[in-house]
């Protein structure tokens, strides 16, 4: 069994920054081989991919966040990060992390508002 827990969400003003973390634990012996991703969802809409990072370190971003968000990983800690800068109200959502298209966290709320 694998557990995935997000943290770091909260309320921030437009233009501000937040750093999300996603820690994986449990029956993980090959975290470094996993492809990882951050998703977000607002009520009534489909969950969308925000950023992804492969086991080899290649990254991919949604057009709406490219240049503002940075995804990274620390395989020694089984943890993934999402640095979010220049936040906009439209970034408001519940953010989820995913490991290898199998394991999901419970989500963390990000609210961008003045």
Describe the protein.
- The termini are far apart.
- Helices cover 0% and strands 52% of the residues.
- The mean pLDDT is 95.
- With 114 residues, the protein is mainly beta.
- The strands form two sheets. Strands 2, 4, 5, 6, 9, 10 and 11 form a seven-stranded mixed sheet that branches. It has a four-stranded antiparallel sheet with strand order 1-3-8-7, with no helix packed on it.
- A hairpin with a 6-residue loop joins strand 4 and strand 5 (48-53).
- The chain has strands at residues 2-7, 10-12, 18-26, 36-41, 48-53, 59-61, 69-74, 79-84, 93-99, 103-104, 108-112.
Distance between the termini: 40 Å
Rg from alpha-carbon coordinates: 13 Å
Shape: globular
- DSSP strand count: 11
Largest sheet: 7 strands, mixed
Work out the helicity level: under 10%
Helices, by number, come to: 0
- Assign the structural class, choosing from mainly alpha, mainly beta, alpha/beta, alpha+beta, or little secondary structure: mainly beta
Mean residue pLDDT: 95
Portion of residues in beta strands equals over 45%
Uncertain runs: none
Give the SSE string: EEEEEEEEEEE
